[in-house]
Amino acid sequence: QARDASRNAGDVTEELKDDLSEGTQKGVQNLKRNIEQARQAVPKIVDEAKQNAQDAGKDAQNSAKDLSRGVQRAADEVQDRAANTVDSVRNRN
Q1: How far is CA 4 from CA 14, 53, 58, 63, 77, in A?
Q2: CA 83 to chain centre
Q3: 78-93: per-residue pLDDT in tens?
């Protein structure tokens, strides 16, 4: 019985070793595959980030232009009203 138990323990140990080895190999293969997929995705992510930054810059530039135009229109309107007021005062006298 002791020999049988020893053989069974040896068999179980050998199976465990084989299972661990197989699991390690599969894990390493999965890790390599994941690393390769990530490596391939990096340029796309960088390009998307660049594009987003460019788009944000364009949006900010357009907003600044719109603001500048709005301020200029307001200044023109104030100047026109001031001129109209001066003319109106002159015409009264």
Answers
A1: 15, 71, 79, 84, 104
A2: 52
A3: 999 898 888 888 887 6
**Tokens of residue 13, six digits:** 């140990």
Q: pTM for the whole thing?
A: 0.47
* CB contact burial 30-46 (16+ within 10 A = b; e otherwise): eeeeeeeeeeeeeeeee
Place of tokens 């053989």: 7
Q: DSSP for 7-54?
A: HHHHHHHHHHHHHHHHHHHHHHHHHHHHHHHHHHHHHHHHHHHHHHHH
